[in-house]
Amino acid sequence: MRARTNCAALLERSTPPWRLDRRESTKHCLKYRRGRGEILIVNHEGRGWWDPQSDAKGDVFDLVQHLEPRLNFGEVRKLLRRFTGIQPSFPAAAIESGRSPDLPLPIRWARRPRLRRGSPVWRYLTYARRLPPSVLESARAADVVREGPYGSVWFAHHDGRRNVTHIEIRGPDFKGSVRGGDKILFRLPGGSGPPTRFALAEAPIDALSLAALENIRADTLYAATGGGMGPKTISEIEAIVARLAPIPGSRFCSAADADPAGDRYAARHREIAAAAGVAFERLRPPVEDSDWNDMLDRGERTKP
Fold first, then answer.
1. CB of 240 within 8 A of CB of 191?
2. Strands of 38-43's sheet in order across
3. pLDDT tens-digit series, residues 67-93
């Protein structure tokens, strides 16, 4: 029944019905509105949903109990039988065809609000991801994190001239990126002066987590590749490391994940450091198959 009942179809046939916001919906995230301020997002091809204004989320059974808390499980099953096999009114293709042409990434970035204390995005980063306010304030000041739609977080990649070239998206139940652009590097300066230490992680949240664990070292540029390293990312890494080369005591620290893929990235980082004549250090998370956000989370959970 879970696999054959679409959350969007249920919302459209509720009383009063929910209406699809086609302008703010995508193929994979359908935004439904009802009344004054009620919003629900349907994802996972109709099998999941979440509320961007609270922590509520789940499958179609959870959706019915979210809308009708008085119903028990048997009553929920009885209600859902009426919706099994029914599809929503708007096919995904119609949503995609109705989209306006994408604006340039720098304009889309500039139109999103800056990170605000107490917002759903702030709560996600502090409670779910355990990032401390000091790191979030630094990220806001550097303008590398903004608030996306549906309670998501936008992380900007920049080129060497500070142009936004790519935007990664993370949220309580979503992982993706804004269409268009090129991955180069997400970066958070630890201080105002030229860095003497370059710490490179895979994901922006891991770079921010390492900064938190190190109390944001002023000598460090914290950065992330966003996963794999394309030619433009490698070129930018090489340019940063080349600037470190003349500085006594400079260091390239690979903070890639503690898994086989992370070790392969670290080996490539070591090669880049060696070619530039810069000291290299492997900052490997101490628990196998983990990343630096996992380590931050473990540390927070073990505090008295």
1. no
2. 19-20, 30-34, 38-43, 48-50, 57-58
3. 998 899 889 899 898 888 888 876 554
CA pair distance 282, 270, nearest whole angstrom = 8
Coil vs helix vs strand at 270: helix
CA–CA dist 206, 61 (Å, integer): 34
Q: What is the pLDDT of residues 126-178, one digit of tens each?
A: 999 999 999 999 999 999 999 998 789 999 999 999 999 999 999 887 778 88
Residue corresponding to tokens 């119903």? 71
- Contact status, residue 240 vs residue 221, Cβ threshold 8 Å: yes
Q: Which two tokens stand for residue 77?
A: 């099953």
Instruction: Tell me the chain's radius of gyration from C-alpha atoms.
Output: 22
- Indicate the pTM of the whole model: 0.70
Copy the structure tokens of residue 129. Answer: 């991801």
Contact, 27 vs 95, CB < 8 A? yes
Q: What tokens appear for 66 in the block?
A: 């979210």
Residues ≥6 apart with Cβ < 8 Å to 11: 17, 18, 32, 34, 40, 42, 63
146 token code pair = 């903004």
Q: Please tell me the distance from the alpha carbon of residue 272 to that of residue 245, in angstroms, as a whole number.
A: 11
Burial status of residue 16 (CB atoms within 10 A of its CB: 0-12, 13-18, 19 or more): exposed
Contact 22, 90 (CB under 8 A): yes
Element (H, E) at 218: none
Question: Domains of the chain (ranges plus CATH)?
Answer: 7-97 (3.90.580.10), 105-301 (3.40.1360.10)
Q: Which one-letter DSSP state was computed for residue 114? A: B
